Amino acid sequence: MIIPDPNTPVTHLLAYKGNRSLYLMANDTVVRSYNFGLGFQPVGHKQFEGDGKTPEGIYTMDRRNPRSAYHLSVGISYPNLADREYAKQYNRSPGGDIFIHGTPQRFVGAGDWTVGCMAVTNAEVEEIYRLVPLGARIHIFS
Hints:
Layout: E1 12-16, E2 21-26, E3 29-35, E4 57-65, E5 73-76, H1 81-89, E6 98-101, E7 118-119, H2 122-131, E8 137-141
Parallel strand pairs: 1-8, 6-7
Antiparallel strand pairs: 1-2, 2-3, 4-5, 4-8, 5-6
């Protein structure tokens, strides 16, 4: 069930990469749901800068960018300590700057085109930007 009240507090987010579904949750209830595009290499957990993958695991929504090149964006706390340690073993950078963001007109309908972010429509990112509090956890599943 999707709650129609636009002011329902979001407690956490669930993202399923396999079916490109993002859910804003209020405890056990879906507040909003969206489809999204992924990085240009959508299968697997992000490991290194430039690999085109979207992270998997539990992260935190940790920043907002009102001047995003992708309309608006809300930051995901990738890389965490485990991500940094893994990349360090290979003497590589884990990358960073992973966001939920909007979609420029030139990418509308392009499928998986980001470098590791989750792309929704510009109207949807406006809603996400407004509803998702900083500090909310996001669980990203394969």
